[in-house]
Fold each of these.
Amino acid sequence: MPSIELTWHTQMDDRVCPICKALNNYVWKFVAGKDNFPNVLQVNGQNVWDVHQGSRAHGHEGFNCRCHISSEIFLSDLRERFEAKRDELKANVEAMP
């Protein structure tokens, strides 16, 4: 199954809150069709995202974190399964009289 990685990025300067500094370059990994996006994301036992309450980051007055999350989708196992199916079909066609 494809896997998805979400990576937290921030500017890492003096305007970034402590929560966001701790999250910089943190990666969450999920397998599509297997893992559901969690209701609560935790880093080092601290809730940083809750679907009911939103983000705990950026809530500190005086900070301007400028964070973003990048995503990558890895399809390598899909390619392997496609190539195996292709090879199977090719063998079946070659075996035909």
Note: Residues 24 and 89 are 46 Å apart (CA to CA).
Amino acid sequence: MNFLINGYWKNDKSSFEGYIVREFDDALGDEPNEDGLTDDDIFYYGLSELEIKESIENAGVDEDALEFVITSYEIYKP
């Protein structure tokens, strides 16, 4: 499953919107998949919906290894 996330970088608090993350570490190739995405479209691999929700709940608490904080998300729909 793919998700669109919004958030900010921990180091400088600059925000971002609409970054695509994939639930699994199954890297995409150069050819578009069924959603029309390639590896270049993916910001981050390996975040489940539960992990995304936990990141939102813990926003501002530096408990994870991510370099960014997720503030909202939605399921990616091509």
Note: Residues 49-57 form the longest helix (9 residues).
